[in-house]
Amino acid sequence: VNSMSNPSSRGGSAPQTPQTTPNTTNGSGNNNNNNPSSASSSTPRGLAAIPLLCAAAAESRPAYLRRLSQTPLEAAWWKRQEPLCAAPGSLGAIPETVLLMMARFLEHLSLTTPGNLVASFLWPLHNSFLGLWMMIILYVTVMKSVTAIVAILVWGTRRTGISLTREWEDNLPLVSQSISAMVERHQALTSRLVGLILLPFPTVTQFLKQRVPNMTVGSCLLVTALIASWWYWFLVAPFLMSCILWTALASGTCFALIEFAGV
Which string of b and e fits 60-91 if b means at least 16 CB within 10 Å? Predict the structure, then answer.
């Protein structure tokens, strides 16, 4: 993540945001892990994109404005992104598709409006949309994993073709690692705030993994804990994310005034 965040602070002539999120498994492995040969075969596309999105959220306002000034409309960054957790056009891709449509509209406004005033106003919202995308990716990934766990508990490994070991040793740790990486000190504020909202999940999974050696019992407890805390995941967390978006919209006025004043 550090290696991808540094370019945005140096302010070179090259675009300061990672050019695209992974569109192939091999591509995602090459970007998010020091050992691509091991990561590319097991990391879901959505989770592989988290470091890239964190790097994009760390882009400074001058670097963001400079990148927009060098970007033609047909090569807009959001325009080249696609849903990562499901096939484009499928039911599971709807949350990401809606987000991408809104982000593309805002980016279109920034690219087609003369001057940097509108772009400066929309810069905080751009970063917040990156945080929202990370949140959607983690939500969808967790829901898929929990659905698989419930199917295994009900139907068994033989009938489902998946195992609890894969969920507990591969998928759930990847989600926990992604959230933990988002709250590290070097990350941008948007990434850290979204990571803090989601931090209860890795806390629960790590506690169960350490304290409950039996995967079946741990899986039952995990599903129970998530059901019992539904109010947090579907009421409190979305409310906190909406507060981040509204704060970004309000702070955009300040950055627009800074740009207007030429500071």
Answer: ebebbbbbbeebeeeebbbeebebbbbeeeee
What share of the chain has pLDDT > 70, as a percent?
84
- Rg over alpha carbons for the chain, rounded to the nearest Å, is 19
Instruction: Tell me the pTM.
Output: 0.84
Residue 209 and residue 218 in contact, taking contact as beta carbons nearer than 8 Å:
yes
| Residue whose pair of structure tokens reads 């047909």 in the numeric block | 74
Per-residue pLDDT, averaged over 125-133, amounts to 97
Give Cα separations from 7 to 15, 22, 88, 202, 236 (angstroms). Answer: 9, 19, 30, 30, 35
Please report how many Cα atoms fall inside a 13 Å half-sphere around the Cα of residue 20, on the Cβ side. 13
**Residue 43: DSSP 8-state:** S
Cα separation, 97 vs 52, whole angstroms:
18
